[in-house]
Amino acid sequence: MDISIGSNHLRNTNGIFQAEGKDLIQLAISDDGAMLLSMELYNPAGTHVATLEHNAWTSNEQDRFELKIEDDKALLVDKTLKGVILAFKKDSQTEVSVPQGKFYLPSGMVSEVTPEHWHVGNKIELKNVDIDLHGGAIEIQ
After folding, report:
1. Residues with Cβ < 8 Å from 77, sequence gap 6 or more?
2. Which of 23, 25, 32, 125 has the fewest other C-beta atoms within 10 Å?
3. Rg of the Cα trace of the chain?
């Protein structure tokens, strides 16, 4: 699967974002064309707060988070803070774009996506990167 995140193009991924040795996000497209999102959500203190598996919540205390899917677009939002955690769009059966996002890693470090770049904490800013991951995961350091 090819994933465009911000202005970056990550080719031939397995759709999994890993952080600190854990699977954090998985983007997939089913055989019938449906977008599927799985995600472990953390707060700024690094506390695990929710789990989404293939578009279904397995934990989501007080229904704080909501996944909205319309046609080929999906939006994961924090209803308490009224912010977008992840927006993604199916561009084709093998391509997904992530134009916007703000989510926390297990350490509490923030990862933020805009159409122009992808920031991970204060350490990494990716802008206009084009890389082939040869079927591997996207590792967030």
Report:
1. 65, 66, 68, 83, 84, 85
2. 32
3. 14
CB 84 within 8 A of CB 69: no
**What residue spans define the domains of the chain?**
2-121
CA distance 29 to 54: 10
Predicted local confidence at residue 69, as pLDDT: 95
Condensed to tens digits (0 to 9), the pLDDT of residues 53-98 reads 999 999 998 999 999 999 999 999 999 989 999 999 999 999 999 9
Could you tell me which of 87, 48, 49 has the C-alpha nearest to residue 68? 87
Q: Is 64 in a helix, a strand, or coil? A: coil
C-alpha 49/C-alpha 59 separation (Å) is 8
